[in-house]
Amino acid sequence: MKLDELKLNVDYFQFDESLFQKLAAQPLNNPHLVSYSKSACDLIGLDYEECEKEDFVKFINGEKVLDGSQPYSMVYAGHQFGYFVPQLGDGRAINLGSVNDWHLQTKGSGLTRYSRQGDGRAVLRSSIREFIMSEAMHSLGIPTTRALALIGSSHKVFRSYEEVETGAVVMRMSPSWIRVGTFEFFAKTKDSKKNLTQLADYVIKQSYPHLENEENRYEKMFYELVDNTAELIAKWQVYGFMHGVMNSDNMSMAGLTIDYGPYAFMDIFEKHNICNHTDVEGRYSYNNQPHIAGWNLEVLANALKDICDFEKLMSYLETFIPQHIKVYLELMNKRIGLDESLSGNSNLDLIIELLGSLESAKCDYNCFFYELTKIKSLEEVSAITDICVFREPIIKWLKEYKKVIKEQNQDFKIMQKLMKKINPKYVIKNYMLQESIDNAKEGDFKLVNDLLNIAQNPFDEHKEFERYSKPTPAEHANLRLSCSS
User: Fold this and answer.
1) Is 249 assigned a catalytic role?
2) What is the pLDDT of residues 420-473, one digit of tens each?
3) Which listed residue (249, 267, 279, 364) is catalytic?
4) Contact 364/383 with Cβ under 8 angstroms?
5) Residues 121 and 27 in one domain
6) Structural domain for 372, as ranges
7) End-to-end CA distance of the chain, in Å?
8) Is residue 81 included in any domain, yes or no?
């Protein structure tokens, strides 16, 4: 389909006009295409060659408005690092409408009513990070928003504590942009019950359409979000992902990963790892993510009091951690090739011991699983121990692993076939992204596009980039990033 043939649908103006702002984007100076995702194009039926045209850049930059579109930004509230902020909102994002039920949104398009002290802009480095990681997470089977395209510019953006940078815009896509924080804001409005009911019906239509004619559908919406979030956080932790800013306004009502900021995939495994240097207390550390997700869901339950049975919501919320653990163990068993049905305790002890051993050994988390996937036998494990700073903890764990395999009468070669489906050769690390950012600042976008290809095909070989399948260089491991990242 041609760009001009796309017809967008805007369905948000059913809400009170105080809950959104209609506005136009503020275009960047001298915009240019950096990259686009063919996979994301497929979701909305857009021909790839359309993305190479000047009109496409104008579309991303807000200079071209498609048929049916009326750009707008949404208001929401949220708990940020545990403290309630009564008004937040799309401070630098503009919604354009939906195509094939994918809601298009540009990030970095200028000031909105909700920008507060911000400038409404996004810089090239953070935009590259979100663009690539959105596609990487999808390719690992982790629910996420998607990214259609990225443009850069000569537009100067000032960050007082950092260098002068250039502005960029990411075109983001999601089945829904409604957040827990949206419900928090609606719950504080004058006509809260009416607004909450309308918002809940809107979310159900977008994300849980099978509930539209159900009794107690608002409670059931909450239950399904609990289930979806339990699975989401389990997948984050199985692959060593840390979001970095799990504020309630960054938590999707569709159970998706949204708002990529100071995120990281684990380098050297540390269960209390913190990837956001603003997070001085470790609220959003790797190990704390399930508990914070549960905390945010309790915030949502409180916001839904006017239209739901609060006690029922809180009772169901008690299933969140058990569900999370169940999914986590199922996936971790697959990462080490075991069939949990053959184990009475889902190999819980072995997995706990593995995490302790990885931490003691100072071993690169995802590289460990990849090396385990491809060794010739459990008698030849030097490829695994060579990536550890301290070998003994992993050697000890491998002995226990062999015992379990023998007890369960499993064939290691067959196990490896299972592992190859879940253990990627490549996981996008922050040092790789930084290399592409450094090149992009000089006008070279080849590595951005190469990393996009790797991100979308993490199980493939990519011989030219073999070094990216190795452990993160020590000087770049477990670095903390800022919220502007």
Assistant:
1) yes
2) 999 999 999 999 999 999 999 999 999 999 999 999 999 999 999 999 999 999
3) 249
4) no
5) yes
6) 337-485
7) 34
8) no
